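In this section we walk through a basic example: taking a raw amino acid sequence and producing a predicted 3D structure, encoded as discrete structure tokens. The instruction is simple. Fold the sequence below.
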Amino acid sequence: MDELFWVALALGAVLKLISIYFGGIACFALKKEVKYPSAKKLRRFAVLTAARNEEAVIGNFIESIQKQNYPVELFDVFVIPNNCTDNTELMAKAYGAEIIHCPFPVTCKGDALQQALMQLRKKGYDAFCVFDSDNIVSPDFLLKINDAFDAGAKVAKGRLLASNPQASWVSGCYNIYFNLFHLFFNKARGACGLSAKLVGTGFAVHKDVLESLGGWNTTTIAEDAEFSAQCALLGERVWWVPDAVTYDEQPESFRVSLLQRRRWCSGIMQVGKLHFKHLLQRLIKPNGVYAADFTMFLMGAFAQALSILPLGLTLLAAIFDGKEGIFNFIQAMGIYFLLYYTLMCLMATILTLYQEKRVFPKEMRSAILLFPIFMASWIPLQVISLFRETKSWKEIQHNGKSKDTIPTA
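The resulting token sequence is shown next.
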């Protein structure tokens, strides 16, 4: 039916407006990255990680922090063990970390951070760095974050890469995805003065921001996205610090990847439902541009879920048109998916070469060929999350085997 076709076309056009916005911002990735000058003042950092059954990897993380090119008297490492059934706490102590116990039940990472920062906020630290326990942190991380704070940052996000990109095609796809975000989201936003995407590891927060917020007060399963919304509501920019690199161990199983990314999708939608109204009210206030940009980011998740509607309406219209309509639909979809697959593989190849500095690892071939599937799988995850929330956090097991195979950033 022609009516269904035009409704699908109109709905698709509306959803594409969000893609056009992100595409426009991505163009700023062509600008040369500006380096922050060396800081004149050295700040005191508290380094935190919430750990749940991380015995196998916690030592690697603590060692990487202890090897920072930063005065050892100006940073302390704190591990927040929660719901552990292994020897995470004993292992963390053995490697020299201080332990923070949570006096109240912990159901997610946000709870652990809230209770830890409640104990640390008055201890004289200038800023707090948050990591995952499976991370390996580059030696210059604190130095580069400190440079950003000296330049005016109050919230800073470092670059994230997979520590195990060659372990499986899934972990390889994560690394390509992180490079995609580095170039077209974070680098572009850094170039035009917008906020970087604050994912749940490798970021730092100045004490003044926590004072303004009354501590760490996130309630959703996506504490990073919720904290980003709170920063946008404060009019506080998340500064992009690409030279502060964190390597994060990624799932090697596609099933585990789906579970993890579904939690991410559900969490972002929870944040959207919680803060859309407040973000819209913030648009007309000073620094409202950060609220506007983050609103578009949240809308992107919902738009991706709703993108199946134009496809479904087009298919329905084709069915009503009979055999010819169905044939034309299949032909059009075949051409579309061929173009999509080719372009995504090409992009994955370019992003891999970009990171590997023109040395192409053979182990990344399967990741490149399957990257289109990895990216397409976000859509069903968003659709499921739209109708069914993920309310509980489940640990992802790590093995720490990638310690000695960290790639060059």
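Looking at the output, two observations stand out. DSSP finds 14 helices and eight strands in the chain. Residues 323-356 form the longest helix (34 residues). In the next section we compare this with other chains.
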